Every structure is written in C-alpha cells, then in structure tokens.
Amino acid sequence: MAVRARQFQTYVEQPTVVQPKQTIIKQPKKKRITAKEKVLYIAFIVVVSILAVTILHKQSSIQQSTMEIQTIQSEISEISKQNVDLKVKVAELSRYDRIMKKAKALGLTLNEKNVKVVPGE
C-alpha cells in the first residue's frame, strides 16, 4: 500500500496543467445591404423626390394664382371707387338749376309745351 500511496502522492503532487482550448467561432459575414435592398432604397428616394418636386410646383402655382387674384381684387376696388365718384359727379352735374344756367348762357329758352317728364331712376 505504501507504493500505491507514493504513487498517489506523486500523482497528486504533480498538478496537471490543462490548457484551455481556444475555440475559434467563425461568425458568418453579414452583408449590410443586399442588391435588392439597394434598388428598393433608390426607388423609394426617387419616388419621394418626385413627389416633393411636384408638391413644390403645385404650391408655387397656387401662390402665383393667389397673387394674381389679389391684384385683380385691388383693381376691382379701385374701379368701384372711381365708379362711385363718377356717379356723384353725374348727380352733381345733372342738377336742374345748373342745367338752366347753362341753357340761359347759351341763349336757350324754356318752352313748357315741349317738356316731357321722364321718371327718375
């Protein structure tokens, strides 16, 4: 038994060095973007840019139309003011006493047989 004890002691005394095995795990390479995805991304970007340009074009045409409408409305308001002023001037110039003064200045006389009454507006 002593022999076995020595063998056991010597076996225990000599530690076995176990080197850890290095496991190399190869990870599969990932493709970042596939060719089909690239085509889809490019098509999406093209569609979005076309829509953006279309929207900007429509907005500019709407703004231009709005500006034209505003200028036309300002012209209409100016013309309507001129019309009101002209109506006041017509009413002022068509007064009876002013017409009589002009007629007498031109040497015309009033003949009541030739006068016809016209209903006023």
Describe it for me?
This protein is mainly alpha-helical. The protein has a domain at 35-106. 67% of the residues lie in helices and 0% in strands. The longest helix has 59 residues, at 35-93. The mean pLDDT is 84.
The amount of helix comes to 55-70%
Give me the strand/helix succession.
HHH
Helix/strand class: mainly alpha
- Determine the strand fraction and express it as a percent band: under 5%
- Report mean pLDDT, rounded to a whole number: 84
Query: Given the structure, what is the number of helices?
Result: 3
Q: What is the end-to-end distance?
A: 149 Å
Shape: rod-shaped
Main sheet record? none
Number of strands: 0
Uncertain residue segments: none
Radius of gyration: 54 Å
Question: Main attributes?
Answer:
121 residues, mainly alpha, 0% strand, rod-shaped
Produce the secondary structure layout.
Layout: H1 2-13, H2 35-93, H3 96-105
Q: What's this, in brief?
A:
Helix content is 67%, strand content 0%. The chain is mostly helical and 121 residues long.
